[in-house]
UniProtKB/TrEMBL annotation:
Organism: Vulcanisaeta distributa (strain DSM 14429 / JCM 11212 / NBRC 100878 / IC-017)
Domain AAA+ ATPase per the UniProt entry, residue ranges: 50-186
Lineage summary: Archaea, Thermoproteota, Thermoprotei, Thermoproteales, Thermoproteaceae
Protein name in UniProt: Microtubule-severing ATPase
Domain of life of the source: Archaea
Amino acid sequence: LRTYGKAQVGIPEVTWNDVGDLEEVKEVINKYVVATMQRRDILEKLGIEPIHGILLFGPPGVGKTLVAKATANMLKANFIELNGAELARVGPERAAAVVKDVFNMARDNAPAIIFIDEIDSVAPPRDSPTGSVWSNVIAQLLTEMDGLRGLNNVIVIAATNRPWFIDPALLRPGRFDKVIYIPPPNRDARREIIKIHIRNAEVEEGVIDWVAEVTEGYSGADLAALVREAKMRALDRVLSGDNKVRITREDFEYALSKVRPSLSRELLSQY
Ligand code: ATP
């Protein structure tokens, strides 16, 4: 990855194989984004508007960043990440200039995906108490999004845990008009995610199914941490003389006591 100022540019290594579940999300992205970037001729013939912006929303740690990276990898597009919370820290004046630079950088490095994580930090509704502070940044984002209309090789993916806290002008046609919910993982999804993180490792039979069953409320990020913890526990065990060189149910029991679920019912009831 090359570094431009603070932002890095390069094709991510994450592929769809690293993303557990989320089949519908993959399908929508494959269909619209691939058509926009690679088969514009078909869209024109069918009178379908190309896509310029996608908003991914859902609880924390469910794979929004992962989806954006896998999309860039699939398209062999450069990935330029802009973190809304970091951008907010530079202040509203400089933030507008950074937004402008990042869009220029994307055009210079096309095909490119711009990923704006935590977009709500810099694009709250302009009529909200914090909204007026960020109106310059929002205006810059709107200008840049509108400027992408004639281009088919730059797409912006934004992510948020608070879709209700985004200025509505950003969601109008031609801007972030494809809004996709990334849900918390259900049991089957959790099994897929655990399998991805545990691949290549030796695991006691039946353990993955059992872990998937008992991890309600665990996000993808929590499951990744859980598997890491179980692996380290197994390593400790084996190094202290145990001859079971595989990950056992007991390793996961220990990991479950260390890594707690982050998705409470209360949090999920917002979506
Ligand atoms: P946040 O809202 O906190 O930014 P996010 O939704 O963008 O979170 P990611 O950063 O994509 O979540 O996920 C964090 C980590 O959790 C990933 O790097 C990956 O290890 C794991 N993870 C999350 N979702 C999945 C998934 N569906 N499949 C595989 N791993 C996942």
